[in-house]
Design goal:
heterodimer; A: 179 residues; mainly alpha; 10 helices; 72% helix; globular; disordered N terminus; B: 366 residues; alpha+beta; 13-stranded mixed β-sheet; three-stranded mixed β-sheet; 18 strands; 30% helix; flat
Chain lengths: 179, 366
């Protein structure tokens, strides 16, 4: 038996696809900040849209999610350079390391995440109990959709619906709380 | 694009946010076959892209949800079930003038209603409500909120039976360990029976750990009163109604044989027969409840004790092959779910050898 990595490795990451790994530090932090500063992100979404349209359809459909994340990351990088803001939060080396060991996050993302944790908890409390239950089972306990379905006596399809509703509510609540 | 100019009360971005969330959940399933459809959706408008990125950010943020595992899913399911009745009524009214939403699937409603019936059974009012039993499996921890607002946190492989009346709040610790955060109510003493020992509190926080050899009570906040012996508990009946015999009688009636009071920061261990084995003030009683964070803290404890403690949580059993190793003392903090962390620690010791199989870890002297 090989030694287990650190305890936190039991997170739901193991179910995530490659695209998810690519959704790494800089992009996440940027988007969380964006919940406070809407306009830059709208610019970025605009530009990402234009770039996405330029990609050959055959390429895009293979990995649409990964493509989008890569475009967004590059845009944020360019934006930060242009803006002359403090340097680059996107770092391809970090990304590559993250892809290999997705849990060794840079310290600043960890702290950003801790700051968000309280807000997130407040948002969670507003969700209906069943939404909270599926969310916890998926994100904290790392169960698959069909495992959650078995645990709650729901179809995997219903589990997905509840998760999507929960996620949409979290996102909207985060938005509404921002100035 | 300027959201500030939108009329108040309309949130046109909401539906896109919802579809973005649905897409993200769909793609979270590695077997999805809907990539083409998703590409088309993304290409619909910049807003779709924006919402999908935001949904991704929030989804990723949710990875860090409840790191200390304080949220009890079973409690949420019960809560959801309890709310089903009003929810159904609203939904029926909605149906009259709107198309059925797919997630109100008929089977969900049927199941929810069944669960609601079960929940109602637990809430039947009366002088004596039927006792409720709460339990955890090996390795599981859960918190339960009781009707009076008190919270019981159950450690691994533990079971309590709860029965409330208008004059008493009685809990029987059948096995394992529980932390009680008692809601203040002077009219209804909160009592915990663990074997022959009865612990009574008004509003306080204390931990009760029941082992075959006896019960350890640790007080984190407030004062508890401990009674013990046959007069405090009528035999080993599993029914709290008879277990705490005087519950029906007086509102403030204390257990008959009060042995002593225990204050915050104090800890006492009582034998199965109700005799005090030790009474002390450990440096930090709060450490007693480190289990809530699934941490196991040891100070100068023998490897034998440490192995027993890990074995409470995990199906992979740690066995210690010889006595010299069993009595070796260690100090350290470990993740209760991860016996491997202990093994890694022990492997650094040149005098210890570790053998592993799929269900056992054997520790012996080198």
């Amino acid at each position: 038996m090989s030694p287990k990595p650190a305890p936190s490795s039991k997170s739901p990451h193991r179910f995530a696809g490659i695209a998810y790994d690519q959704f790494a530090a800089g992009l996440h932090r940027f988007l969380v900040q964006r919940l406070r500063c809407a306009e830059t992100a709208q610019d970025i979404a605009q530009e990402a849209y234009l770039r996405l349209l330029r990609i050959e359809n055959t390429d895009l459909v293979l990995k649409p999610q990964a493509y989008l994340y890569r475009i967004a990351r590059n845009l944020i990088y360019e934006y930060k350079l242009r803006d002359g803001r403090d340097p680059v939060t996107f770092d391809s080396e970090i990304l590559e390391r993250l892809a290999e060991t997705p849990l060794q996050l840079p310290a600043d993302e960890v702290s950003a995440r801790l700051c968000g944790a309280e807000e997130l908890e407040a948002v969670l409390c507003q969700l209906p109990a069943l939404y909270r239950a599926v969310l916890i089972l998926r994100k904290r306990d790392g169960l698959s959709y069909s495992e959650i379905g078995k645990a709650l006596d729901l179809s995997p399809h219903t589990v997905k619906k509840y998760l999507a509703r929960a996620l949409a509510q979290c996102r909207t609540a985060r938005w509404d709380k921002s100035p | 694009m300027n959201r500030a100019t939108r009329p108040a009360g309309t949130t046109p971005e909401l539906s896109i946010a919802e579809s973005a969330a649905e897409w993200l959940i769909e793609l979270d399933d590695p077997n999805t076959e809907r990539l083409l459809e998703f590409s088309a959706w993304l290409k619909t408008s910049p807003q779709h892209i924006e919402e999908f990125l935001l949904a991704s950010a929030v989804w990723r943020e949710l990875d860090g949800v409840d790191p200390t595992k304080r949220i009890a899913v079973q409690g949420l399911i019960r809560e959801a079930a309890a709310k089903v009745r009003p929810w159904r009524r609203t939904q029926l009214r909605e149906r009259a003038h709107r198309p059925a939403r797919p997630w109100f699937h008929r089977t969900v409603i049927a199941i929810s209603a069944a669960v609601a019936l079960a929940a109602l059974w637990a809430l039947v009012p009366g002088p004596w409500s039927e006792p409720s039993v709460y339990a955890t499996a090996k390795g599981e921890q859960r918190a339960f909120k009781l009707r009076d607002g008190s919270v019981v946190q159950l450690n691994t492989h533990s079971k309590v039976k709860v029965r409330f009346s208008s004059s008493n709040r009685d809990v029987m610790l059948i096995e394992g360990e529980a932390l009680f955060s008692v809601a203040h109510d002077t009219a209804r003493p909160f009592r915990v029976a663990s074997g022959d020992t009865v612990i009574q509190a008004v509003g306080t926080q204390f931990d009760v750990d029941r082992r075959p050899a006896g019960t350890t009570v640790s007080v984190i906040e407030g004062i508890v009163q401990i009674a013990s012996g046959n007069s405090a508990a009528a035999g080993s009946s599993s029914d709290p109604k008879s277990l705490i015999a005087e519950s029906r009688v007086g509102v403030h009636a204390p257990p008959e044989r009060t042995l002593f009071r225990l204050a915050a920061g104090e800890q006492a261990t009582l034998s199965a027969g109700g005799h005090i084995v030790t009474r002390s003030s450990p440096e930090l009683v709060a450490q007693v409840v480190a289990w809530r964070e699934r941490r196991l803290e040891f100070r100068e404890q023998s490897l034998g004790q440490i192995a027993d403690e890990f074995n409470r949580y995990n199906s992979q059993v740690i066995r210690i092959a010889d006595d010299a190793v069993r009595n070796k003392r260690l100090t350290g903090v470990f993740d209760a779910d991860d016996p491997e962390s202990l093994v890694l620690f022990l492997e650094k010791d040149p005098h210890i050898a570790v053998e592993r199989s799929s269900d056992t870890i054997i520790i012996r002297a080198k």
